[in-house]
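Structure first, sequence second, as always.
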């Protein structure tokens, strides 16, 4: 490869072997995760043998294997050694017809290799440790899409290798990680965990205190316009500005995102707390100099006073959060104080959280499916899986009545996993019945933050034998922007597997265009607010037309939501929109009802 051309081969090989030692893959106990990945590869590609091959100096060692007794072979007869200088998978469709391998002992003798495909395991240092490979005693074709799927699994394995290596480092670095666990890496301030621990201690000795919660006004615009790197530098500058203002007198922390918190011990008078809040708010108005650019940024501040508004840091933060919400509702750049009547909303939220936990345990959630139509011939080509709550007292509730609370609960990850599992299983049933439909699934932010979303999706697809192209992951701009790195890496791995990516509610947020550049999006969903009042020549119609043209330039598919009239359908069809969904074609319905509709002629859908 050109990137290594300037290096002496022996030096590069020595560095590669050192990297293998650094990852401790030879002479260590078996890893259940590795065994699971090779088993998944064997199942997904329907082969007899699947291996994780680590190419050492003299031999290749199998860190995990399925279908092969041998734990190693000599390097000079290894297929995998030929993949060490590749970026993409090495594919040998028939080894007997390949002069490199026709006389290889592994071809003419056990295991009688005819087909081989190996994706290089290139780790963060740039070195290739070996391959994730699949082997068959029969020759076979292997198209680029299958090669990409194998490379996607290899990337999952690489991620596991990196996590495993990090875990080893965590054991030769306990003190350093203890610091990382309690301090924010970007600003050097205490993080949420450390803030809670220190605040509990301070409140125990000095019960009078003020808690100030900061939210940066306009920070999302900085991220969207100037990029996340500039946003991170701005957060670091904000942390430094606040640290300079409060010195060591108060407890300052970054809780996450653009949210900072301050505990002021001994201040129980709202007037003193207000004076401190105004001083800190004014500190923002001096601007922040990043390189040669001065950025103007304001902040909203919510204030709660102990012990009047709470005796624990959890209660005080909750009260300050309500006060902050009130301050932002007044236009931002202001200071809001908690008032007791605001607590009613907290109590209502707690009741709803308890009911949601019970609902999940009792099986009260249900998935409905709304058909997605090809406007060229009115065929059903897909369906969006939509969550509903069958409340025992209030009947069926839509997500708008509970999703905002659920999304902030730890329960969100479990509910999201259930939704994903159920939707994939239903899509597999339709596929097996000869009526394949693309299934759209909305994910919670917590699923992206889990770190193993691509692997979970791969397992669910394999378990249900559903082709990856029949799954479409839908996410909103809000989820993407607030969880940037986690979303980007997960979507890249999912896209490599063949899963489609849809950007929901397109055109209503702040970061649409930048997300198209940063994320592997395959489809845009035109938000229903533009479709609802769309009349030829009006502003909404112009927006829709612009989105269709832009999508065409990016090579993206488009689907319009909220189509309720034949006039809207006809306008979209004439404008070049290929797909639509909405009440004109069918409300969200149980899977059994959609199954029945699939048997009807397409012309009857719009009239149903």
């Amino acid at each position: 490869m050109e990137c290594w051309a300037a290096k002496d081969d022996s030096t590069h090989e020595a560095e590669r072997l050192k990297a293998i030692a650094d990852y401790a893959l030879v002479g260590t106990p078996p890893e259940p995760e590795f065994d699971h990945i090779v088993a998944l590869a064997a199942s997904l590609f329907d082969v007899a043998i699947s291996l994780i091959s680590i190419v050492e100096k003299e031999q290749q060692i199998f860190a995990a294997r399925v279908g092969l007794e041998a734990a190693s072979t000599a390097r000079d007869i290894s297929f995998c050694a030929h993949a060490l200088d590749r970026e993409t998978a090495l594919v040998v469709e028939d080894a007997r017809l390949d002069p490199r391998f026709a006389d290889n002992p592994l071809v003419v003798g056990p295991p009688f290799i005819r087909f081989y495909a190996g994706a290089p395991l290139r780790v963060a240092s740039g070195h290739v440790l070996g391959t994730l490979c699949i082997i068959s005693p029969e020759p076979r074709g292997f198209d680029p899409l299958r090669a990409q799927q194998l490379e996607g699994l290899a990337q999952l394995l690489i991620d596991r290798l990196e996590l495993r290596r990090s875990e080893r480092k965590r054991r030769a670095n306990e003190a350093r990680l203890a610091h990382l666990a309690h301090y924010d890496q970007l600003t050097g301030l205490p993080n949420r965990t450390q803030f809670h621990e220190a605040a509990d201690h301070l409140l125990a000795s000095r019960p009078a205190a003020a808690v100030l919660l900061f939210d940066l006004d306009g920070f999302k615009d900085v991220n969207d316009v100037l990029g996340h790197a500039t946003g991170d530098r701005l957060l670091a500058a904000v942390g430094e500005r606040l640290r300079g203002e409060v010195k060591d007198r108060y407890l300052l922390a970054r809780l996450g995102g653009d949210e900072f918190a301050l505990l002021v011990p001994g201040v129980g008078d709202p007037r003193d707390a207000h004076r401190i809040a105004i001083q800190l708010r004014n500190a923002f108005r001096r601007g922040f100099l990043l390189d040669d650019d001065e950025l103007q940024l304001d902040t909203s501040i919510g204030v709660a006073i102990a012990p009047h508004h709470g005796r624990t840091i959890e209660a005080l933060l909750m009260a300050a959060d309500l006060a902050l919400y009130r301050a932002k509702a007044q236009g931002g750049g202001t200071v809001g104080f908690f008032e007791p009547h605001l607590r009613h909303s907290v109590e209502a939220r707690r009741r709803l959280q308890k009911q949601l936990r019970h609902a999940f345990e009792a099986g009260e959630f249900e998935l409905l499916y709304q058909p997605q139509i090809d406007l060229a011939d009115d065929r059903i080509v897909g369906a969006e899986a939509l969550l509903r709550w069958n409340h025992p007292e209030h009947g069926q509730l839509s997500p708008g009545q509970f999703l905002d609370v659920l999304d902030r609960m730890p329960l969100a990850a479990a509910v999201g996993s259930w939704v994903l599992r159920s939707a994939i299983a239903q899509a597999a049933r339709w596929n097996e019945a000869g009526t394949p439909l693309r299934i759209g699934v909305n994910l919670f932010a917590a699923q992206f933050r889990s770190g193993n979303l691509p692997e979970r999706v791969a397992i669910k697809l394999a378990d249900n034998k559903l082709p990856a192209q029949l799954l479409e992951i839908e996410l909103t701009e809000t989820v993407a922007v607030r969880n940037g790195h986690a979303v980007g890496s997960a979507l890249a791995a999912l896209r490599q597997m063949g899963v489609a990516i849809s950007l929901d509610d397109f055109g209503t947020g702040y970061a649409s265009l930048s997300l198209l550049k940063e994320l592997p999006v395959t489809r845009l969903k035109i938000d229903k607010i533009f479709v609802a009042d769309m009349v030829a020549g009006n502003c909404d119609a112009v927006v829709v037309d612009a989105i269709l043209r832009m999508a065409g330039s990016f090579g993206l598919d488009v689907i319009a939501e909220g189509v309720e009239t034949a006039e809207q359908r006809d306008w979209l069809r004439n404008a070049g929109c290929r797909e639509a969904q909405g009440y004109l074609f069918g409300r969200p319905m149980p899977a059994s009802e959609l199954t029945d509709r699939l048997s009807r002629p397409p012309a009857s859908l719009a009239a149903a």
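Margin note: Confidence is low (pLDDT under 50) at residues 1-7.
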